[in-house]
Amino acid sequence: METIKKQLRDLKLAGMVNSLEVRNEYAIRNKLSYLEFLQTLLEDEFNNRRDNSLKKRLIKAKFPVIKKLEDFDFKFQPSINEKEIYDLATCSFVRKKENVVFVGQTGTGKTHLAIGLGFKAILSGYKVLYTSVDDMIAQMNISKADSTYYQRVRYYIEPELLIIDEFGFKKLNQNCVENFFDIISKRYEKDSIIITSNKTFEEWEEVFPDKVLTSAILDRIIHHCHLIQIRGESYRMKEQRIMKQRKRNGKE
Q1: 80: left (phi > 0), else alpha (psi -120 to 50), else beta?
Q2: Which CATH number fits domain 69-237: 1.20.5.440, 3.40.50.300, 2.60.40.10, 3.30.450.20?
Q3: Which segments of the chain belong to CATH 3.40.50.300?
Q4: pTM as predicted
Q5: Residue 30 to residue 28: CA distance in whole angstroms
Q6: What are the C-alpha distances in Å from 193 to residues 43, 168, 189, 220, 241?
Q7: Which of 73, 81, 66 is nearest to 122 (CA)?
Q8: Torsions phi, psi of 163, nearest 5?
Q9: Mean pLDDT of residues grouped by 10 in the chain (252 residues)?
């Protein structure tokens, strides 16, 4: 048994190593054929590799938290077409190199939906990266200072799906706009982007000081884009109202 385990380790078949003894006992008790025994070991190896691959992609995605579409309260945000979201969850937009933009006020569930779609993409085998606009711009500025700019650009263009969260909260200076344009232009029609924003497309000029670059960025994002506009109140505001109501009821 130990000799076989060592040989399996040398062949990097960790899934088989972990289940060998249990599968061997089961095969003896149930008189499995050699092929049936081999099939169960191969299934264990396949499942182990799939699980490890999923874990690695989740770590590399850099999600701040895991959000699932199944936990999203569509009843609270009736302006969202649930079928449209689940159509996107098939990841057909990733296969077609299309973009998704969520527009809505703070607290309306944009980030939840973006991460939920990102999680579905990871389950489908895609490489995903999450970043906020502030963090991406900060990392790009640092990379220019330490001469690793092109490495940082590759970091943002390599994933098949890039999620850029919280666009529009701060006005960007000229250097930041140029950095942002580099990422968008290099991903254009090659891989997908999800952007969450509190600004409509017409209001993006308030964020970018350069109208020419603004037009170029918008043109590349809008060309193959699913726009999801959320018209509703903040979940957090709703929760605060409920808490206040409970406090008042408690005092009464």
Answers
A1: beta
A2: 3.40.50.300
A3: 69-237
A4: 0.82
A5: 6
A6: 34, 16, 10, 11, 35
A7: 66
A8: -105, 120
A9: 94 94 95 95 93 94 95 90 97 97 92 97 96 94 92 96 94 90 94 96 89 92 95 67 60 56
